[in-house]
Amino acid sequence: MKLILSVIFFVAGSVMLLAQTKTIEVKDAQTKETLTGVYATSQNNKEDYRITENKILKLDIGKTYRISHIGYSPRVLKINSFTPEVIYLEAQNTELTEVLVTGKIFQDPVMNITTPDLTERVSQPKNVADLFRDINGFGLIKRGNYAIDPSFRASQYEQLNIQYDGGTKVMHACPNRMDPITTHVMPEDIAKIEVVRGPYTMRYGATFGGLINMVSKRPEIGKYGLSGSASTGYETNGNSLVNMVRLQYAEEKFDVVGMYGYRDFGNYEDGGGREIPSSFRSIDYSLRMGYNFTSLERLQLHWRQSFGRDVLHASLPMDSDYDDSSMLSLDYFKKRPGKTLQKIQAKAYYSYVDHLMSNSRRSNFNTVEAVSPVEATTAGGRFELEWKLDEFWTLFTGTDALLISRDGTRNRLIKLNMMGMPITPPLELTDKIWQDSFINDYGFFAESRYRLNSSTVLNAGVRYDLVRSDIQDPATDFQAYYPGLGSRTEHNFSATVSLKKLLDADNQLEFAFGRGVRSANMIERFINHFQVGQDPFEYIGNPNLDAEVNNQFEVAYTGKKTFDGAINRLDWGASVYFSHFENYIVAIIDPTKTRKFMPNQEPLNPKVFRNLDEAYKTGFEASLGVNFLNNFQFDAEAAYVYARNEDLSESLPLTPPLRSKFSLQYNKNKFWAATDLRVVSQQDELATSFGENQATPGYELVDFRLGYELFPGLNLGGAVLNAFDQQYYDHLNFAFRNQANANLSGMERLTDPGQNFTVFVKYEF
């Protein structure tokens, strides 16, 4: 009898051991098709990752798993003997605007940054500068309080691939960049910014120094009915006022979002109490309509207009009388789970900028009256197919186009001669600015993502760009410089390869190499004796420039660790990169040419754009975050870049110094507060050929911010910016120009705002 019982217990125990795992198949809830590439993350042990093998998951009985798949709402499931052998995931509403798939370790591009929700924790009126100032590695090129360009790792302008909502672009009309892409959108409409830190993706247009995608705020999934928000903010320094209203109506099939914003910024005072001409007014509105054919298929139309008025640019020779822009985009998206062709994406867009600048408010207006109407048209789109070649292999193929055209003139009325005597009648002259030029870029790309094992992903991509350019109404002297002017075609090849390795659930290592190619922009090709730089030189374009090439290699490491004591969590990260440039484009003084306008005024020789033979940059970013005592968070960040022009034995232009930021935050229930300390070092690595002749001093800034939810939906915010009224300027700021009326020296850099008290109120319903 004992022998029989022993056998029974042995057999039962063996059966129980065999039953410790359960096989589960995961299907689409709508199509009932089996999903591959499904992740099961154990909630009991963070190091336990499971991935579907042969279309099934083998999960341990007694454990709890989070079952997830890209594009689907995840499910948390406790495995027991009653758990069904087939479970279903619901497809999320289609996403049209993102480049990154944040938090999906095997889908995210390498070397990426994503900001938190920029519409949350607002404590002061937002300007375009606020979109980038808190992202590690970024600086701001400022010509006033309106014309602000982001700079990333000493790359700027068209070296950065800046776009809205996964591909929409708006190019500036003004040769002095009074209207960069960031001025044509309401900052309150930007929910987050996605950054790929180098030429590591081929899918979103030609990328040289990095990809920046500004993502518009969109209807929340499942938030149906009428909702919206209204906000108002005020700044004491400049008596600046910002108002915004957002209304949204959504159903399962249809949604519409409308926004209206009004901004009225006055002249600010710097830390020395001087008034800086920087006022502007702008009105923006947008309308976005979407229709969901199913939960897997969506069509979206987006219309946006912006109207700038009386914009003062302290560091440019003229001001903007008006700056009007219109943008229209149409997006289509379809998912096909379980199919080899898994996704289809298509986008088409058109934008138009109408810009008028004049010197009517400047000291030289009595001598010469100048008015410049200019316009820019940008059109394009992209079409992409996502293929699931097998469970671990995804391929993206597609094409895109970027078509840019510009025209405009400067009309001068010369009223006084060089001796200060009146000219009767005044002399009328017309100068061709853009010379009716265009640049068309047609791109073709393929990018593959292959999962080598459960912890390693290999990514590789190639891209070909066919670039056509032409100047259709050249000035006589420009045609004399370049007798062979005409249509030009360029063939650019880009490529990338990267490896992402999960060392464990909390640590990640990334390696990436990218070759990014950028053809010369319209200023570098076709500008003709205009002051478009940081200095008083006239600049001449060069239509024969070779395309710039950035060969960039980068290594990055990120990690995190949680604790049970006073310290709750640590987050850390660092990346180191090196770029070797080919044909880097800079403007160099040409002693064989002479100044065209006001020929007796220094400097006598203009600058002409040309390619460098040898140039490079290297640098790093590092960050540390500490969550402690449940409600406190401390963050430290640093970024440094060293750039070198070996041809002229000097730095490359607009290279920022070492920047550091330290932030202490407190958050409990409805209240939050933060103190930020920014430390910027002196910059003595200068590009003298660019006009950087003096080292710029370092500075420290302290900001205080706080917010409180008075009751559900109503949030109050306040801030003290530059709390100690520091007088400072950044190395990337341009110098004052043509500001004799304001008693500001033309040799001095634009100084930033002094102490500023702000208040912000937002109501959501």
UniProtKB/TrEMBL annotation:
KW Hydrolase (keyword) present: no
Major location category of this protein: membrane
Protein name: TonB-dependent receptor domain-containing protein
Superkingdom: Bacteria
Keywords for this protein: Cell outer membrane, Membrane, Receptor, Signal, TonB box, Transmembrane, Transmembrane beta strand, Transport
Domain (TonB-dependent receptor plug): residue spans on this chain: 113-207
SUPFAM superfamilies named among the record's database cross-references: Porins (SSF56935)
UniProt membrane topology term: Multi-pass membrane protein
Leader sequence segment: 1-19
InterPro entries: Beta-barrel_TonB, Beta-barrel_TonB_sf, Plug_dom, Plug_dom_sf, TonB-dep_rcpt-like
Family: Belongs to the TonB-dependent receptor family.
Localization: Cell outer membrane
Domain annotation TonB-dependent receptor-like beta-barrel: ranges: 282-722
Originating species: Psychroflexus salinarum
